Amino acid sequence: MSASGTVLRVLEACREGCLRQPLLVGASFFLAGIVCGYRFGSWPVAVVCAVVAVVFFATRKAGVLAGAASVFLLGWCDAAWDSAGRNDESAQLEALPQRLTLVCRVGSEVAATPLKGEAAKFSFRTERLRLTDGACAIRHLPAEVNWFGARHAELTHAPRPGETWRLTGHARVKKGRDGLLALTVNTGEERSERLAKADPASWAARVSRTRQQAAQRVTIGIEDWGVVPALNQAMLLGSRHAMPPSMRRIFADSGTIHVFAISGLHIVLVASVLVLVVSTLGVSRPYWVVFVAPLLVFYTVTTGARPSAIRACLMTVLYFAAPLVGRKPSGLAALAGTALIVHMWQPWLIYDIGCVLSFAVMGGLVVFCRPFCAAGQRLCRVERLENYARLLDAAGEHPRASRIRWLKSGVKFMADSFAVSLAAWLASVPLTAYYFGRFTPGGLFANLVIGPCSFFIVVAGCLGMAASFASRWVAECFNHAAGFFTVVMVRTAEIMAACPGGNFRIAKWEPWMVWVWFFSLALFAAWLHTRRVDGLAWMGEDVGQKEDVR
Q1: In this structure, are residues 522 and 366 in contact, taking their beta carbons and an 8 Å threshold?
Q2: Which of 72, 164, 186, 205 is surrounded by the most beta carbons within 10 Å?
Q3: pTM of the model
């Protein structure tokens, strides 16, 4: 086929994909509107334009155009409103002295960072922040407090989630790399006072107690295993501040630090375990979400309800809820719906590093995982091994056929693991280069070992946590298994971090370079799936079913 014919097929594939996935198109227009809203502001103008667009297109029966324009301008209004609120609050604070006395409620998590000597920094997000005299209430500016004190203060008088504090310190409003304003407050023990303890029945207090109990249960029997207990807590509960700085650096240099973020990886692993349980119990697929969703939400809350975990949980729930309402499960639709809901509530997350990385990696997995797995299995001749095993069965050589099938399973596992690692790596490369100025080709190979290890750690750790309520001995067995895979993971990261060329620094990419990379990936994805007989079936979940029929 000529190059022009290929281009036409790719364009036709993109057009059909847009028609098949209206939610994906709507989310794209909404996110584009958010970018323009933060860039140009003027939310009243956007509101007027939205009304005019709806009236103009509706009178001409152009519903699709009216919907697209309305969604785009709705995102514009959302972002411009938030930007205007930040600017107003920043102007109010600039008129006041830098040393302020504030009253706030501590957020759902307090991260402790050891400093030199016996000092430590306790950082937390605030809720309901205001000046003591009531002259200014902070509703739009994200505020983070750095509370400096002694290390032992964590167990005695340091801020805890849900408590109300009066803080006196230096407040500074500054722009981040994303161009958005944020507030930072620096204070300490002698300049702060606890006004009220956390309500034991409050959400933040319950989450904090649950996490403390879970942290004790996942370390039963492995308390003296060096850094392993801290790493298991970071893997299972998101307690990344418990990791030693040296160990954090090793995983960062090996390109595998993402395994310690309670995000899509962990939620998918936990969801896989829950689905295996409910399917074994005989629950039909449309009703899986009824049992999986509450347990998944509980796990998300237990791990601190981090934004990345909330996004992954929401996406998973949307995916499994599709059969319950008579729709086919679609990874792209669930991802687009999650992006729409999350950014409608908090539009500023479009510039958040963790949010962008999370959605980019999940998008890469959804789009490329299936075709990469199929290509890897073809390259490794997995189907030929199965046919050979069938011939051996027909010839009566059953032991040899069994060995061939074991070999096929191992080859298929390695091919699929590399495909998943490659899909995630392709999606994260430009963002890592843009935000951190690093290129980590070694992570592509380290994930072949660390990915499966993280799965076994999550499974064994969850089973150990559940078993600890019934038997300490059984919990120790599961925790020892989780600790073993943690040791394997650490050794792999150390080897890859020390490997020459495994990671190196580069000049930070410009935004246009990131856009060119993702645009090229989009064209590659469209071309890749035009080569398939079933066309755009990759947009949904019927690909595997059609291939099975063939």
Answers
A1: no
A2: 72
A3: 0.71
- Please give, one letter per residue, the 3-state secondary structure of 149-207: EEHHHHHCCCCCCCCEEEEEEEEEEEECCCCCEEEEEEEEHHHEEEEECCCCCCHHHHH
d(CA 483, CA 487): 6
CA distance 423 to 367: 8
Residues 521-540 have pLDDT tens digits of 888 887 776 665 333 333 33
Pairing of strands 143-150, 164-175: unpaired
Fold assignment, 96-198: OB fold (Dihydrolipoamide Acetyltransferase, E2P) (2.40.50)
Q: Cα separation of 278 and 300, whole Å? A: 19
Q: Classify the C-alpha dihedral 233-239-241-247 as positive or negative.
A: positive
In sequence order, the 6+-apart residues with CB closer than 8 A to the CB of 425 are: 443, 444, 447
CA distance 526 to 26: 19
Q: Is 179 exposed, middle or buried (0-12, 13-18, 19+ CB in 10 A)?
A: exposed
Residues 200-256 have pLDDT tens digits of 766 666 776 777 777 788 888 888 888 888 888 777 776 666 677 777 777 777 777
Q: What is residue 305's DSSP assignment? A: -
What radius of gyration, in Å, describes the C-alpha atoms of the chain? 26
Cα–Cα distance, 395 to 85 (Å, whole number) = 76
